[in-house]
Design a protein that fits this description.
alpha/beta; seven-stranded parallel β-sheet; 19 helices; 16% strand
């Protein structure tokens, strides 16, 4: 009964979203238009090579969690074709050309016929689902073809629908999964209590990803050309509401010799123009031309993609955007790995690393300019407290690392490809 109800609601949801694409956002249209291309993109698989692996991620955040495992699979099984699927445009768009996969597609909507066709077409030797984007019909299709399925970096809560009365059919699916690697002890205990025994606590591979960043070359010539001797504050993955919070702060503290580097999340030219127009200090916009950089400017807006993780290596304090609105807090692990004290907005409840670091004292929550001004005045007067915050963050990252090794050691013994 639960499976029938799920499929009925799933079909209604599909029909509703198909209609809403014509009046909804650009991402909703991408969500459906991209799915019309899935079957054609799968034709790029070499039919003469039946060695294949499949990893599924909901979005970009899940991709970053699964990425260390994906890199290991690519290195360990170079003869295998890898199919990477996404549910959301925010994952598919940035990663549709990643060299870690041979084919990148949107996952077709979870209906029995779609799931059977997809699994039959891809025919993977093993499947890897990241975190909690678990679709019943796909799990059934994998079971029917006796394809082992592994769940990476899962995190479950008691209130999750899977553990309620309507989730009994889904719990049966979880019991058939080859192994569930969970992030924490609470998730492990919850699964064990429901007789889901093929599970272990591995942690979150994202921490290994940011730890690896420390050993890479993080120098950026245009940042070196911009920076002076004074303190430098990074605004990473910022949105318009984050800019509104910081604008009065920037205009006040640039007069005191503080420099600011702003790396917006959405490189909207109108917003970048608005932002730069409201900054009273000398402001540069970097778009990939190093000759525009001079060391007289106090503010640098980075209008490029792919530099932020290395930019954090050059800062003294970071503000991570997304927590002032509904877009979702962005990655605080990268600045934490570099030992920066961190500020965020008040919307962070869905991000366990933020909750942990707030409790430990490495992250400050702010929601008005006066909060920022108060902390920056203390920072300029005595940065010892903020250095201690940075140490808390870097130690936390080191303590949480190691998930990739735990998962891959298990897979070395368990995978038969």
């Amino acid at each position: 009964m639960g499976q029938l109800l799920y499929n009925t609601l799933s079909l209604l949801g599909q029909l509703t979203l198909r209609l809403l694409q014509w009046v909804g956002s650009r991402k909703l249209r991408e969500f459906w238009v991209g799915r019309t291309e899935t079957w054609a993109r799968l034709q790029a698989l070499d039919p003469m090579n039946d060695k294949r692996l499949w990893m599924h991620c909901a979005s970009l955040g899940e991709f970053e969690q699964g990425r260390p495992i994906l890199e290991w699979l690519r290195e360990q099984y170079p003869e295998h074709q890898i199919v990477l699927s996404f549910f959301s445009p925010s994952g598919y768009g940035p990663k549709k050309n990643t060299p870690l996969a041979d084919v990148v597609v949107y996952l077709p909507w979870d209906q029995p016929s779609n799931a059977r066709k997809f699994v039959q077409t891809v025919a993977p030797g093993a499947a890897f689902m990241v975190k909690s984007d678990l679709w019943p019909n796909y799990l059934i299709a994998l079971e029917q073809r006796q394809i082992p399925c592994y769940v990476i970096a899962a995190r479950f809560k008691t209130k999750h629908w899977i553990f309620g009365p309507a989730g009994q059919f889904m719990r049966r699916r979880l019991r058939k999964i080859r192994h569930v690697f969970v992030q924490n002890q609470d998730s492990f205990t919850l699964l064990k209590q429901r007789a889901i025994d093929h599970c272990s606590v591995s942690g979150d591979p994202r921490y290994d990803r940011v730890t690896a960043q420390l050993s890479q070359d993080n120098e950026l010539d245009f940042i070196d050309a911009f920076k002076q001797k004074g303190p430098c504050i990074i605004l990473g993955s910022s949105w318009p509401e984050d800019h509104d919070l910081w604008l009065p702060v920037i205009n006040q503290f640039t007069e005191l010799g503080v420099q600011f580097i702003i790396a917006p999340h959405d490189l909207n030219p109108d917003e970048i123009k608005r932002l730069s127009g409201k900054i009273t200090a000398d402001c540069l916009i970097y778009q990939g031309e190093p000759d525009v950089i001079n060391n007289r400017a106090q503010v640098l807006i980075v209008n490029t993609i792919g530099h932020l993780s290395r930019i954090y290596a050059h800062g003294d304090l970071a503000y991570v955007g997304g927590g002032m609105g509904h877009s979702g807090l962005h990655n605080i692990l990268e600045p934490a790995a570099f030992g920066l004290p961190i500020m965020i907005g008040p919307v962070f409840s869905k991000f366990p690393e933020a909750i942990d670091l707030i409790e430990l004292g490495g992250v400050l929550v702010i929601d008005r300019p006066t909060d920022v001004i108060d902390h920056l005045e203390k920072f300029l007067d005595d940065d010892q407290l903020y250095s201690q915050m940075g140490a808390i963050n870097s130690n936390y990252i080191q303590d949480m690392s190691g998930a990739t090794a735990r998962i891959t050691e298990f897979l070395k013994e368990d995978l038969y490809l």
